[in-house]
Amino acid sequence: MYVRDAKNREEVWLLDHIEEMGLDETNFRSRDYVIAIDEHDGRKAGFGRIRIHKPDDGDPVCELTSIGVLPEWRDQGVGAHVIERLVEYASDEGFDVVYSLTSADRYLAQFGFERIAVEELPPRLQERLDEKRENIQPDAVPLRVAHDDFTVPPRFRERFKNASAHESEPEPEDTAEDFGIDPDEATYKYDTGR
């Protein structure tokens, strides 16, 4: 399993899963995303985005958003490594602090994110929080982490090393009895009436 930058050809896949999971697609650009990939079969397992806000007045700010892990890959450290890659990217771009506006505050707290007061957010993110609460996540709260305080707990690293898709149980095949047909008495020939 590894995490890499998204490619333009993956836009449809990203948009489909963002919509399916009810995540934020505001100002969508595939180049802002990373994707977790299974190195054995190339299957996509999860994704996330760093959004850089460049206000007209003030310094740019960095927001972690739209983190999603496909159901069959959950609880295996995929989301943790997507977040780690995004925080590293933010640091490489010169951001010492990464913000997140989400209802997943307990999950992000494991990595060093701390809940902050709305007033502590940069003005652009205060507006963004209002938009997010109004449109897609009414219980979103503001969080932040300094790059130096970010950490991935060892349990996530171990899970990620051995991550594999949990296949869902195959659906049982439909039988004649499921449709109220007695298979011993019924005929399956098409009667043309001739």
Features:
194 residues, alpha+beta, seven-stranded mixed beta sheet, 5 helices, 7 strands, 22% strand
Secondary structure tally, helices? 5
So what's the oligomer here? single chain
Provide the residue-averaged pLDDT: 82
The secondary-structure class comes to: alpha+beta
| Low-confidence spans | none
Proportion of β residues? Answer: 15-25%
Largest sheet: 7 strands, mixed
- The total of beta strands comes to 7
Distance between the termini: 62 Å
Q: What strand line-up does the widest sheet have?
A: 1-2-3-4-5-7-6
GO molecular function: acyltransferase activity
Protein name: GNAT family N-acetyltransferase
Organism: Haloarcula onubensis
Domain N-acetyltransferase: 1-130
List the helices and strands and how they pair.
Layout: E1 2-5, H1 11-21, E2 33-37, E3 44-53, E4 61-69, H2 78-92, E5 97-102, H3 105-109, E6 114-115, H4 123-135, E7 141-146, H5 154-161
Parallel strand pairs: 4-5
Antiparallel strand pairs: 1-2, 2-3, 3-4, 5-7, 6-7
Briefly, what is this?
The chain has 194 residues and is an alpha+beta fold.
Give an overview in words:
- A seven-stranded mixed β-sheet has the order 1-2-3-4-5-7-6, with helices on both faces.
- α2 links the parallel β4 and β5.
- It has 194 residues and is of the alpha+beta class.
- The protein is globular and about 80 Å long.
- The protein starts with a strand and ends in a 33-residue tail after the last helix.
